[in-house]
Amino acid sequence: MNDFINERKAKLEDFKKNIRKKTTNYAPVDIPDGIFIKCDQCGAAIYEKNLETNQLICPYCEFHFRMGADKRLDLIVDTGSFHEMDRLMTSSNPLSMPDYEDKLSIGKRLTKREEAFLSGTATIVGTEVAIGILDSHFMMGSMGSVVGEKVTRLIEHATKNRLPLIIFSASGGARMQEGILSLMQMAKTSAALYYFDQAGLLYISVMTNPTTGGVAASFASLGDINIAEKSSLIGFAGARVIKQTIRQDLPEGFQTDQFQLEHGMVDLVIHRKDLRKTLYKLLQLHSERKDG
User: Fold this and answer.
1) pLDDT in the model for residue 241
2) Same domain? 250 vs 117
3) Across the chain, which distance is largest between two alpha carbons, in Å?
4) pLDDT given for residue 106 in this prediction
5) Which distant-in-sequence residues (6+ apart) come within 8 Å of 208 by Cβ?
């Protein structure tokens, strides 16, 4: 019996050796970085080119990845219709914060623009609009004094020329490197929107992932129509900070787009592929009411 067992063990060892020899004949495959991207929601590995052609939407769970300002602009406005405003405005370091210039340089290199906010005029299916887009790839779309000034100038331009206003927000909030100068932009942008509203004009705010902090607490939440793009996180402070402050358990998913819709904080939750069409319909509806 022992001989039989020993024979079986010997054959098993020979089999394992043969398997190792066969598998080691193949050279290891070197997969370059950036070929596949992991979905934050479902964990699927997505071929990057497929993600790009699908408007940065996961093909498995429809999670919406963050989108830069230029790609957002191409998705929404008519080709060749955009005219940029205040392109060369750039931030300084008013409080002499360490490493701030380095962070600004990284943002400029990543986005190929001077600041986190892209603004100007364009047309959407022939309808002229003033449009602004925060780019989360530039210091997480944070609002410093230059971003606040560019937002305010865009609002004032729309007021003067009686244009409908659309702003896409994607931000971590007020830029801490500028302290109170950053927080002042919340009041400034909100005041500009007050005069815009007094002129009887339409402001559509589109909140994307994420819209938080001072941006969420100012111009992002003041739209006549507030839209949340699908998969967006919307709120003021982080869940952990809120829980530590109020010492209460928080509702599950309380900062998601659907939770905000169910509790009246936004009017619509829109899939990215439907955004241009939805904005055009809203613009047409507003135009028809004015004409009537």
Assistant:
1) 78
2) yes
3) 99
4) 98
5) 64, 66, 67, 136, 168, 169, 170, 228, 229, 232
171 and 280 share one domain: yes
Q: Are 139 and 104 in contact (CB under 8 A)?
A: yes
Q: In whole angstroms, what is the distance from residue 100 CA to residue 105 CA?
A: 9
Tokens 């241009």 sit on residue: 276
144 and 46 housed in the same domain: no
Dihedral of the alpha carbons of 113, 142, 50, 79, in degrees to the nearest 10:
-50
Query: Does one domain contain both 204 and 89?
Result: yes
Q: Are residues 44 and 123 in the same domain?
A: no
> 240 pLDDT exceeds 70?
yes
Backbone angles phi, psi at 38, to 5 degrees: -85, 130
Is the CB of residue 95 less than 8 Å from the CB of residue 178? yes
> Which one-letter DSSP state was computed for residue 242?
H
Q: What domain range includes position 58?
A: 31-65
At 134, list the tokens: 């925060």
pLDDT at residue 12, rounded to an integer: 58
- Number of structural domains the chain divides into: 2
49 and 128 in a single domain? The answer is: no
